[in-house]
Write a structure and sequence with these properties.
Elements: H1 16-23, H2 38-58, H3 61-70, H4 80-91, E1 94-98, H5 104-112, E2 115-119, H6 136-147, H7 150-171, H8 176-199, E3 202-205, E4 208-211, H9 214-217, H10 220-228, E5 233-236, H11 239-242, E6 255-259, H12 262-277, H13 293-300
Parallel strand pairs: 1-2, 3-6, 5-6
Antiparallel strand pairs: 3-4
Helix pairs in contact: 2-10, 3-6, 5-7, 7-8, 7-12, 8-13
Length: 303
């Protein structure tokens, strides 16, 4: 009897298509929709079905509008070409498939150009809750609905411009060691800002709070926990706290920051740039996140 094999499809960490693209040095890739397995599609259905009621209860209204505007299908993994057909006319953004990890500077610069690097693999259905790296549910169901809002999209573009200016400032430092120290500190500050806003941000809506950060919106457990648990500290957004606050990725966040509106968030990005040029991001507190070699080089070698 001949043994049968099951295709791994596009399951995160087990997708030959992705490994081949990385080996070929490909950055932007196509979404090979034909490779999604029945198990991959079932994982999407399960993820969507269980989180949808929590979106209704805890998500920012603009996120829910985005889900409707994108016509996300609860029954199957979206095709990025269909997502972009709805997304681009609304904010100029597009979701672009990538082969895996995107170094920090390239990621932020894609945002500046209204392109969102999008993971196309999907987590294993046996581990729905925790994933240490992005997958298509996190990226498309967590991030992209917010990209349909013009003001929020402009925040991302503005943030990408700040990252570009950080790389430009680094080139002006003649001493190599001083340049590395400055860039490491700037990356920490930018990563913390992004984490506590775009990934794990809360916003005032009426007399309550709602989640607009994608890390919250793509997590069934943490979406309720972040707004209901007495173990979570929720503070008004203060830039000096945010850029000096370390974070860890492998558990629910114990500390979150609250902005008043998307205009308030945009103003904080403006302030972040002023602090960058004033040198106030050059010596932020040590600690997580660690700056890996690829992220560091992406800023040092940015053109």
């Amino acid at each position: 009897m001949t043994a049968t094999t099951t295709s791994p499809g596009l399951t995160t960490t087990r997708a030959p298509f992705i490994e081949q693209a990385r080996a070929a040095g490909e950055f932007f890739i196509r979404q090979p929709y034909e490779l999604y397995s029945p198990d991959n599609q079932e994982t999407w259905r399960r993820l969507y079905a269980r989180i949808r009621p929590r979106w209704e209860q805890y998500a920012h209204p603009k996120f829910l509008e985005g889900v409707a505007n994108l016509a996300l299908d609860p029954q199957q993994i979206p095709r990025l070409e269909d997502i972009n057909r709805f997304l681009e006319p609304l904010s100029g953004f597009s979701a672009r498939a990538v082969s895996g990890y995107v170094p920090a500077y390239q990621f932020f610069d894609c945002l500046r150009q209204r392109a969102f690097p999008t993971t196309i693999t999907i987590r294993d259905g046996a581990t729905l809750d925790y994933l240490p790296e992005p997958d298509i549910f996190h990226d498309v169901a967590g991030h992209v609905p917010m990209h349909t809002d013009r003001t929020f999209a402009d925040v991302l573009v503005r943030f990408g411009a700040v990252a570009r200016h950080a790389a430009e400032r680094a080139r002006a430092v003649s001493d190599a060691h001083a340049r590395v120290r400055r860039v490491e500190s700037n990356i920490k500050a930018l990563a913390r800002f992004f984490w506590f806003t775009i990934e794990f941000g809360l916003m005032r809506v009426g007399d309550g709070l709602r989640a607009y950060g994608s890390g919250l919106l793509s997590s069934y457990g943490e979406l309720a926990h972040c707004l209901e648990s007495p173990a979570v500290q929720r503070f008004p957004f203060q830039l000096e706290w945010v850029i000096n606050q370390y974070f860890e990725i492998d558990h629910y966040q114990p500390l979150l920051f609250v902005v008043d509106s998307f205009d308030h968030l945009y103003a904080q990005v403006d302030e972040l740039e002023r602090w960058l040029h004033a040198g106030r991001l050059d010596h932020v507190s040590p600690g997580e996140p660690a700056v890996n070699e690829r992220d560091l080089e992406s800023f040092l070698q940015a053109q």
